[in-house]
Write a structure and sequence with these properties.
The chain is an all-alpha fold and 71 residues long. Helix content is 65%, strand content 0%. The protein starts with a helix and ends in a 14-residue tail after the last helix.
Amino acid sequence: ATRLLAGLDEDDLQLLWLLEGQGMSHAEAAEVLGLKPDSVKKRIQRLRARVRGEADDLGLDDEPGEHPRVY
């Protein structure tokens, strides 16, 4: 998980923290970040897909097709 997070830029980390760490909705995170809720939704979808791909590349899957909840 540390290797996955180390590869993220500050904006991505902030978005993850607001949504996952603070439990904010897309609308709440959008307000904090000065973005539209749809932009937050698209960014987090792309970010989660990227992290899933990197987890696959690092062999961090518990089972094929399943991913640890680090994103």
